[in-house]
Design goal:
globular; 51 residues; 2 strands; two-stranded antiparallel ribbon; alpha+beta
Length: 51
Amino acid sequence: MRKKFNAEIEYVPGDGGVYEIVADGREVFVKAKEKRFPDEGEIVTRLEGLS
């Protein structure tokens, strides 16, 4: 993803099953809202939709 989106990737450990993907301050995927983990390729698809 770093190369594809020329992005800085940061892993922030959490607890309680928190799983969030945020790009430029915008939520891309939040497990608590979706009530599931993302499908394969879903994060890339959503990131592509932001540009």
